[in-house]
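Run Gfo/Idh/MocA family oxidoreductase through structure prediction, thanks.
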Amino acid sequence: MSNKIGIVVVGVGRWGVHLVRQFYQNPLTKVVAIVDQNPERLPAVQQQFNLDLSSVVLAKDWAEVRELPGIQAVAIATPASTHYCLIKDALNQGYHVLAEKPLTLDPQECLELSHLAEQKQRQLMVDHTYLFHPAVQRGKEAIAALGKLRYGYAARTHLGPVRSDVDALWDLAIHDICIFNFWLGETPIQVQATGKIWLERSGNSANSNISQEITTENKLFTQGLADFVTVNLTYPSGFEARIHLCWCNPDKQRRLCVAGSQGTLIFDEMSPNAPLMIQHGFLERNNETWQPVGQKSEVIAVSPGEPLRLVCDRFLDLVINPNQPSKNQPISSGWLGAELVQIITALSKSLNQGGIPIKIPR
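Sure, done. The structure for Gfo/Idh/MocA family oxidoreductase is below.
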């Protein structure tokens, strides 16, 4: 009998295909089944990875494979509105779960699933990939060189991909909020969001039947799916961050910065040769004027490593060794997923109410 971890990948869209690649190529795992409701995706994945159909089941519905022998874990990369039911059933079946972000669209559902995972003694991990990015990990250490932290700013823009299940806020903001929270070691106490809708208003979209069927989405996206969103975050320390998000901007940006009294730490994914750097410098009083001093650029060395592979490796490590010391526990647990969904939900509330500030319950 094989000692490999049997895993099912549910959802093989843009991101799910990468999960198939990771687990199909990993010597510790055996892909037992692949599930997707789109009839075109399954043969495409079979061809892309030259899957042996005598050992990998291709199915259109989770119900067809949920009781197959040899399953120990499930990776879920379906629309966010489907996560709750799929994750709950997988945990009740006794499977470990790796879920694409966001964990669900409801913070109470996230907490329920996290409690269920504890009760079942199973791993529930959320694929917040940036928390495993070598540049983000290194940035956590480098931030000490900035002196007193003052404020942050980020931009995440491109032409698509445009989603039909969530807006740009839910699709994009969670990445930058993750990084800010991780680097600062704190979570926001107040949030604010404003936005614009250019592509799909409620009831006018080619996918409007989807939003009408999903009551949770209707509550979150009462005006439709925002293509452009500006987010403001306020932290207990007084640190403030602004995030610019857009699906309709050909100027592709993946950039996040933290400014302090001694310099600014910059994480720029569009700069592959130097994704992490510090612009050192500060202002010094000279008689009646302020003069910039200490200006220099420092490229921060970053270890190699594909973030998604590091996510999957950590998940498998926890499946194999569930009783590791606390310092080795996942930095992207269901509990953290619930915390982030609470923040995004508050931002949706602010967005739907014209940008009023919303307090985050502690």
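The chain has ten helices and 17 strands.
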